[in-house]
């Protein structure tokens, strides 16, 4: 039997023959996606004695973590930070024997105010007028109280959930204070720094979840906490190490999944460009905005279709500038900078472990990123470097290596850093986003409580999905009920695709 898959060509659906074996492979669980969530799921299942095959569309593991050498410089193209609250990630690093190093933070920070005036400062609070500082502290306390009361696990169940979810974070801030600078400074850490969407595009409840997932809003505004340290060798090396410890051949790269035929009572056949796999359970370890890249037969329930349409990625350009040395340190500067009205709203010293060269990383989010992409590559580079120089002087204008990370144009991500709900979506659909559908389970950082949109959250969700499957398998040592019906259905699907 030749397995045939469906691929899009132009506006028509054309059959695409599998490059793999004509016979379907079999295992207990298929994992779709070889990022931290998918690999953690596979690791957990393998340790429990369950056979697992991981299918990854990219030609690499790591998902939204990606480390590359570009023009001779090692760059963290994707996610990279480790904070003290990310206990699952920290535990895994210790177990794998991997080391971390702290981000350079000695020296004065830079703040560019609304008029573009440059201020050097130390301590936790921006050097703003006393009234602005007072308003910021009051708002932070309010958000801390809300985060503690609502929590990250079930924010949709809180009595204030709908009220907070039907007002934008921008409007909520306006209700808290008339101080424009205070609102803009607070928004840096959520709109630009985390959700990478304009603060009029997500709800106050989504903002509170972001804060609760990190332990508090105070943690989010403390860059020394949330951006504490990095992994020696890059964050992608965590996924590479996880893959290396799985049985040979468990992870199959360059293998986009096109169709999943599933039975409500259990069992599925997964059709990809290279292989076809039959399994009892499936874990989709990809972000929600990619679920629609897969055809499900039968279609997913109506609730899933609606929910997935209310989740979307943000947009950020991560800028890397490498210099012959970290020149800012010679000036007594940390390399950390904030500017609510700058092209780069955040700048940090991102120098690699034991590297004599100095690296800066800057972040350009949402609508500002839109504006940057209207420019030519040369114009965009010049504008971004001018922004870096506003913080650190003219030496920032001439890096040895310059690179822009743009996951929005990456086929198998299409945004950054994670998917979030639109206005009203979290209270409406949040309770269902992690619920299994028949043999289909969901695992990614976008669905996490603690560690939301971080590697730690991805690991937690991968382990959670694996444990859910292990629990199902433990309930019966026999084949699932209605197995003959499942096999008849899945055999029919293979005939249709082959």
UniProtKB/TrEMBL annotation:
Residues 486-498 have a biased composition (Basic and acidic residues). Its cofactor is FAD. One of its GO terms (molecular function) is oxidoreductase activity. Coiled coil: none annotated. Pfam families: Amino_oxidase. Keywords: Oxidoreductase. Residues 37-470 form the Amine oxidase domain. SUPFAM superfamilies: FAD-linked reductases, C-terminal domain, FAD/NAD(P)-binding domain. Substrate binds at residue 363. Residues 475-498 are annotated as: Disordered. It comes from the Bacteria. FAD binds at residues 56-57, 257. Belongs to the flavin monoamine oxidase family. This is Putrescine oxidase.
